[in-house]
Write a structure and sequence with these properties.
Layout (H helix, E strand, L loop, with lengths): L22 H14 L3 H4 L6 H71 L25
Length: 145
């Protein structure tokens, strides 16, 4: 019965030493790669989740580049729209605004003249009577211009 033996059996183990392994060289290459800024996981051994992580990072990078490209397109369209609105404003609205301001200033001048006449009116001043140039029975001719 082999179920209850006092000696424990271990799995086969191999005593394998690589022929061309130089630990000093491996450490030197690792430090150089670290100084150059290379990722240690790229050339090293497999770590759990390495491929999934790299795929996720690549997907995020691609999406961010697409967002930047679409954002730059939107910015250029916004600039074009702003320039077109400025042209429309200058072409159509500035002359109309200028005419409104001109009308307002001319109305202000006439009101100021009317105000002067009102201020100059003196009810106690003598009234100047202008005689009529026509006599009774003469025809009045109205000339329309």
């Amino acid at each position: 019965m082999g179920l209850f033996s006092p000696h424990k059996r271990h799995a086969n183990k191999f005593n394998y030493t690589p022929r061309y392994y130089d630990p000093v060289k491996e450490e030197r290459e690792r430090r150089r790669a670290e100084l150059r800024g290379e990722r240690l996981d790229d050339k090293g051994e497999y770590t759990p989740g390495k491929y999934i992580r790299s795929q996720r990072e690549a997907r995020e990078l691609r999406r961010s580049q697409q967002e930047q490209n679409s954002g730059s397109r939107m910015k250029s369209w916004a600039k074009i729209a702003a320039v077109l609105l400025l042209i429309v404003f200058v072409w159509y609205l500035v002359p109309r605004i200028a005419s409104v301001v001109d009308v307002a200033t001319t109305q202000k001048k006439t009101t100021t003249q009317q105000e002067r006449e009102i201020k100059e009116f003196d009810p106690y001043a003598p009234i100047i009577i202008v005689p009529n140039d026509y006599k009774e029975g003469d025809e009045i001719v109205i000339i329309e211009e």
